[in-house]
Specification:
The protein has about 290 residues and is of the alpha+beta class. It folds into 2 domains: about 150 residues, no CATH class; about 120 residues, OB fold (Dihydrolipoamide Acetyltransferase, E2P) (Beta Barrel). It is built from 7 helices and 11 strands. The strands form 3 sheets. It has a 5-stranded antiparallel sheet. β4 and β5 form a beta hairpin. α1 packs antiparallel against α2. The longest helix has about 35 residues.
Amino acid sequence: MDLKRRIPTYLVDAEHIVSAVVFTVLFSIVFLLVFVPFDPFSWFTLGRSPLLVHTIVFFAVSILFVVLSKLVFLNVGRSRGVSWVQLILWDLAESVAIAVFYTALTFALERKGLLDISLDSYRVVFGRALLISFMGVYVPYLFSTLFYAMQDKDDTIRLMNYGNVVSDSRTAPQDLEKVTLFGDDGLLKMSINLKNLYYIESDDNYIKVWYSDVSGETRQYMLRCRLKTVEESFAGSQLVRCHRKYIVNLMRVELLLREKDGYYVKLDLPGCEPIPISKTYEQTMISRFNSR
């Protein structure tokens, strides 16, 4: 994975940010309840103790900090975009900031006489706090990101074949074969006959679908999706990947051209330049073209 590449847009959606924060808070509470009793440097308590107020303050301030940090992240991600490395560093910075706050609060409690911790132990306190904040903040972010990545893969795009639709009239099979595209919210965004689709082009975190409408005009439709997801969803269909940036419809391929620098696909789309075929997909593309 290219860490300098921008993260998918669904990771800067308000829905993802809210669910990530809620999941992080719940995960952190459960984790601390299990881990803290075995940590000799932890002063958290839920019982009747002067430290109960400070425990509540720490959690309240930490949660507020995470919420504000994610709001800033949301605004930055939408306005300027965020790369994977920036996302990783952002989440790590949150863990470090919470660990620093815990260490400072521990020092303040020691000065008040509520704790008995030697100055030599502060490095250990910070180290343990960093570990706990990493496990309580960073790990649930990672789980949340993986969950949304899997959900995006399942919901973004689907292939539906209407060959078994009941009808009161005879219809040619090719007229029944539909390509349906769904957004990340699970709602249908586009549905066209396969024969009207020319090719699909990758554009960062989006795809561009080139097709002809009912009047025969060439149109372009943009949808947030990875080309890899399209390739997997349409495996075995007339949509074949020929390049890291392109998937073509074999039904619209006129010629397979061989040039000095490799093979190209010529579509029956006026004004469309030949689409390159990369070495990775060369044999598959030639085989599929010759077996049409």
